[in-house]
Amino acid sequence: MKRITMFLCTLSLSLSCLSGCSQNASTTTAPAETTAAVTTTAETTAEANAEPTAPAAETALTAADMSADLVVIGAGGAGLSAAVEAADNGVENIVLLEKMASIGGTTFISQGMIAGYDTALQKEQNIELTYDQMYDNLMTNALYRLDPELTKITVENAGHTIDWLMERLEVPFTDNILVGYGPLQMMHVMGSEEAKGGMALKAPFEAALEEAGVNLMLETRGTRLVMNEDGSVAGVVAQQGGKEILIDTKAVIIATGGYAYNPELTGLLDPEMAGTFGIGHPAATGDGIIMANNVGAALTHTNHLMAVLKDYEIMANHNGNSNSANVSRFIGAPNLVLVNTNAVRFVNEKSGGYMTQELNRPIFNEMTKTDSDYVWAISDEATLAELGVTRGGEMEFLKADTVEELAGLMELDGETLKATIDSYNGYAASGNDPEFNRGAGSWAESQPMLPLEAPYVAVAVVPCEIITYGGIARNVNAEVLRADGSVIPGLFVAGEAGANSAYMGFTLSNCFTWGRIAGAGAAGYIK
Length: 527
Ligand SMILES: Cc1cc2nc3c(=O)[nH]c(=O)nc-3n(C[C@H](O)[C@H](O)[C@H](O)COP(=O)(O)OP(=O)(O)OC[C@H]3O[C@@H](n4cnc5c(N)ncnc54)[C@H](O)[C@@H]3O)c2cc1C
Fold this sequence. Notes:
It contains 18 helices and 18 strands. The protein has 527 residues and is an alpha+beta fold. α3 links the parallel β1 and β2. The relative contact order is 0.17.
């Protein structure tokens, strides 16, 4: 399992980078002077992850470096909303931990497109959508893999959340409400001339934090939760610079985002998805998911993530990223053929778009079955030229005049690949694919199945994870649940760290909505 070794290296590198990043820590508000050394030793995330999930009760805090009513871990969309909402609900002593040097996480690098209905902006433009339409859209896109009770809350609040961003935070939005992720005109686009997409959130949230007196501690990484003997939350251990600090608190909100940048955790939570690379925000390493799981939180829906097909070689050997390894238009070719490393087709290549589970899940499965790090995408020179497709990193795709020659470049069996391509071309000519039924299904019907012609072109591709949908189990109040369904008192979760209440188009909506629910819930708990 070559790829596992590689990803273990990647993980240890990224973990050491994360701790290294905090060496030069500075905070906007200095923590209270240390009264005693923290006696507990912080575990590395990887070590902590190896522990069983039984509640790790720990002696009540006697040596806290600082004290808070509420600690929010992670200053992305979920954590920022949680902190503001908690303050608006009367919580005074809020500490917001952020491991990076600035706030925002994935939220600020997002396109800032957020789904909603019945918003002030839609009312101005006479755009009418209903709850039922929105719920159906979300559930259909997610193939009904979402928790209905939690999803109902996400959808019900989607419009209010946008209005809250506009009214409470004064986040700028464009007038354009787009049709996206389905037929509905539901996608509101934040941004202004000065700050595009998710960056439009920065100034409003900074102002709100300051106004609310939230103690924002940058380059301070939450590493561990400390529990009271009765199973409730007692505190948070964080790493700041070279030292550990212990913050005692009445409640904690985990808002650390997803784990798309932690391939080892992905492989652990769903072995069939081993072999992925992370794209998106490098801070999405699942820290909060690990912390919560270590004190008994249940994890759920961890077989559900969004991956995007990328150029394997560029990702693996050329420090690739989402742009340099982009193969989206190659995958969109009407004569795309996907083969495994045995040179045979294994899927209806048009069963879904390049970033859907319908396409990526079978690819992950095939990589597992063949113990391979990638599958092959094949098209031809004329088609790619017509589509204007070029390879990233100033590299060339593999190209050959015959299938056998192409197979040689791919190090696949020539006879098998020839038979595979001959069969495919026969299906394309007849319009009937008896093996994988390509051409059937609503998405596939819009996708023609054209034949391949020499010269042929190939590239190895791998699904790379960008958004994770699984995570910490919670109830409708954003309280974290143990596997037996009981609540961990004082522990809340919001955003991508929490499991299963959003999908494409609704993920930003999810982080703000559940951030607010967690903030209000924590405020109620503290009182
Ligand atoms: C490129 C890209 C574009 C996207 N565009 C859209 C879009 O247009 N619309 C949409 O709906 N969705 C979009 N998404 C998804 C969406 O942005 C995310 O699901 C959402 O922003 C997650 O919010 P969050 O607050 O849960 O996590 P994040 O915004 O990632 O925030 C988590 C924060 O926690 C911090 N953190 C992590 N661990 C620790 C720790 N141990 N201690 C302290 N701090 C920690 C991180 O540094 C980060 O600041 C996009 C995703 C990507 C990758």
